[in-house]
Design a protein that fits this description.
Layout lengths: L2 E5 L5 H10 L3 E5 L3 H9 L3 E2 L3 H5 L4 E4 L4 H9 L4 H4 L5 E4 L5 H13 L3 E4 L2 E2 L1 H7 L2 E5 L3 H14 E6 L5 H29 L4 H8 L7 H4 L23 H18 L4 H16 L10 H8 L3
The chain binds nicotinamide-adenine-dinucleotide.
Nicotinamide-adenine-dinucleotide binds next to helix 4, strand 7, helix 7 and helix 12.
Pathway: Amino-acid degradation
Protein name: 3-hydroxyisobutyrate dehydrogenase
GO molecular function, one term: NAD binding
């Protein structure tokens, strides 16, 4: 069983840490929120007094932080994790962050004699609690092989996507497809209904025709056809619109930096900005953007 340091035990990190404890690992955690730490301690974890304290004499350190700025500060800042950890420590960063930061931090870690992988997840809080997350990993093969048994405890599918940062690349490109396809679904259901085709009949056709996709078949944005979709519970998330906007912004930042024309991704980002920020609907499920389309189409 491993001695694991865990920094950032919020909505996702908390249940991930608790699954490691349940599997018999010794987990020492740190978070700016003492309430978040208390939950993990209540499940048998130990509390650290600082992030550096959490990495003290740990073979593996996992971080699950909000954004790239937090990751940069925690790893590279004064009293940063890389400086504090012992040589050979394996770092696993599961935060969803920009590709450039993931690659910068991995290089510093590598140059300091540490192992590191970026391992963002999909599956949400339900996946974190159930230990069924998908981990998309970037980094050297040896680091991935060492991380895999630990990730297996928290996830159902663990994929090695290549070198440093490639986990983040997989994550933001996947979510760019998702954001665009949800908008396409929202527009199609709105248009079909406006033209006199009811939602259930349209669903029955499109879900078995060439328009089928996850956003329609599994996560249908109108109530009725897929009883488990957030549309049936007033768009309670699920995956929030503000999280979708965050990931779309990451994809557009990467597209700009690499000179790739992602016209649809950019449009999707602007529409989610309108929905999540201008209309103040960021806490709703991202599929709720169909409401904005319906409103603009006269209800
Ligand atoms: P969260 O805000 O619930 O948790 C983040 C935690 O980090 C908080 O408890 C916060 O106090 C802590 N933190 C921030 N700065 C810190 C610091 N300097 N030192 C120690 N702790 C610090 O967010 P979350 O929902 O758990 O998301 C974490 C990451 O996972 C994000 O990058 C998010 O995009 C990604 N993600 C979230 C979901 C989801 O459904 N919530 C799904 C997939 C991926």
């Amino acid at each position: 069983m491993a001695k694991i340091g865990f920094v950032g035990v919020g909505n996702m990190g908390g249940p991930m840490a608790i699954n490691l404890i349940k599997a018999g690992h010794e987990v020492t955690c740190y978070d700016l929120s003492s309430a978040a730490v208390d939950k993990v301690v209540g499940a048998g974890g130990k509390a650290a007094s600082s992030a550096t304290d959490a990495v003290d004499r740990k073979e593996i350190v996992i971080t699950m932080l909000p954004k790239g700025d937090h990751v940069r500060a925690v790893y590279l800042g004064e009293d940063g994790l890389i400086q504090a950890a012992e040589e050979g420590t394996l770092f696993i960063d599961s935060s969803t962050i920009d590709v450039a930061t993931a690659r910068d931090v991995a290089k510093v870690a590598h140059d300091a004699g540490m192992m590191m992988i970026d391992a963002p997840v999909s599956g949400g809080v339900g996946g974190a609690e159930g230990g069924t997350l998908t981990f998309m990993c970037g980094g050297p093969e040896a680091a991935f092989e060492k991380a895999k048994p630990i990730l297996d405890v928290m996830g159902g599918k663990i994929v090695h996507a290549g070198g440093a940062g490639n986990g983040q690349v997989a994550k933001i490109c996947n979510n760019m497809v998702l954001g665009i396809s949800m908008l396409a679904a929202g527009e199609a259901f709105t248009l079909a209904e406006k033209l006199g085709l009811d939602a259930q009949t349209f669903f029955d056709i499109v879900s078995t025709s060439s328009g089928y996709c996850w956003s329609i078949n599994v996560y249908c944005p109108v109530p009725g056809p897929v009883p488990t979709s957030p549309a049936n519970r007033d768009y309670q998330p699920g995956f929030s619109a503000e999280n979708m906007l965050k990931d779309l912004r990451l994809s557009q930042q990467a597209a700009e930096q690499s000179g790739v024309d992602t016209h649809m991704g950019h449009e999707a980002m602007e529409l989610y900005e309108r929905f999540a920020e201008a209309m103040n609907q960021g806490g709703k499920d991202f599929s709720g953007i169909i409401r904005m389309i319906q409103e603009k189409s006269g209800g």
